[in-house]
Amino acid sequence: MASTSSNAIKINDLHHEYIAGKPVLKGINIDINESGIVAIIGPSGTGKSTLLKCINRLNDPSSGEILFDGADLTKLQGKALRKMRRHIGMVFQEYNLVERLTVLENVLSGRLGYMSSWDAWRRNYKPEDLKHAFELLEVVGLTDFANQRADGLSGGQRQRVGIARAVMQGPYLLLADEPTSSLDPKTAVEIMELMETFAQRNDIPVLLNIHDVNLAKRYAKRIIGMSNGKVHYDGPPEDISEADLKVIYGGESWMD
Amino acid sequence: MDGLAKSSAKHAVNPFKASLLNRALWLVVVAYIFYSASSLGLSLERILLGFSESERLLTRMFPPDFSRAGLLMDGVAESLQIAIISSFFGIVISLFIGLLAARNMMPIMITAPVRAFIALCRSFHPVIIAIIFVKAVGFGALAGILTLIFASIGFIAKLFAEAIEEISFNSVEAIRATGASFFSVIIYAVMPQVFTRFIGFASYQLDSNLRNSTMVGIVGAGGLGGTLFSAFQRFDYDFVSAILITIIAIILVGEMLSNLVRRIF
Question: How many domains does chain A have?
């Protein structure tokens, strides 16, 4: 498995605006060298999702740079961008599975960046990819569902498939956009456990958005608090103070 | 109380009464229909004369004459071949054209001209396209096939494009994030979402090409329509009725088949 290089990912002065003059990200600086879960917390609409989508370029940032694996992600285009995306797995809040395909096909779609479209059309996967897919299904506990269609699964099961698909890419970095927000508290914990498992197993950083502060504190090695398009706090979970949380989320009425 | 009584008296007038303009419009429509009928010579005598002619035709159509089965079957075979070949190519070409016309997958520089092309294919009735192709490539099945390919594109390429525009973009985003190429995204995230609808459209188009393939022959583009037309010209009305019954049978079988296909998927 890929190991983290000395400089896994470095975000320098990143700006983004969907509408000119209304910036969402206002100069983000984040430097991640270590493996394990890094949780980004912050209120809705503060640009957490936008930040993650700028990293794998589902969004195009307006300025700044994102250094990853020896390249500036913000400058990549076309084939170079697709090649780089193979090394960044992404897990989505709404799972984003292909509903009408089987669980196994969904997991194997993590290899699409390494296959020709002709092979994708014929579902002509390499034997080692198939073997790896079944291993991952075992890790996420869905071996029995391999040939079932994804639309028959529960939310928690779907998210497990989503994680297996992202890990199937052999990523150097895993992004997760609110992976637990659509799930019940118990399933959310299971999903976080799974994220931690893969962070250790593959020795990679997992950068995830989460709005449940307690869940973030419990699993993250490091917490990044975002507020109003800027990083307000960046440090270990035990050092984040109530004052910091007040600044990040605004006010204190939500705390009890 | 006094004020209330006054206002309710005002409201007692039915607000839905037909207006003068409304009545005048109806009058104009009825007058125009009478005028058109008289200028086309649709008198009562003309209608009665027509009905006596059709009585003669109907008596000569029965019983249907299936004695020239060889000729009939040749026509049927040619119509079927035209329908199947044109459906195949029409559907395959429409897949690509439909994708190029989908505004969520392609920039407007591509969708606008492709949509114009689809509109062009739709704008003429197949009979007119058939006449053009008979003039362009000569009599026979080739003209019929080209006609129905165009007719298919005009119809299902548009439906394909609309189906693609209605997909959920979530899985497209996820597959794109794996580093998949454009075509892999189409194959893996778009196709599965539209496949069953495409099968429905395609079987409907096969059904309609089957029907149209019997028609293009009338203008010389091959198939059963040609046989039908020459039987009319030779006043072989019993053979005409045999051909019409055969066409009905083909359409029914075609409809049963397309229903079967739709039920499987």
Answer: 1
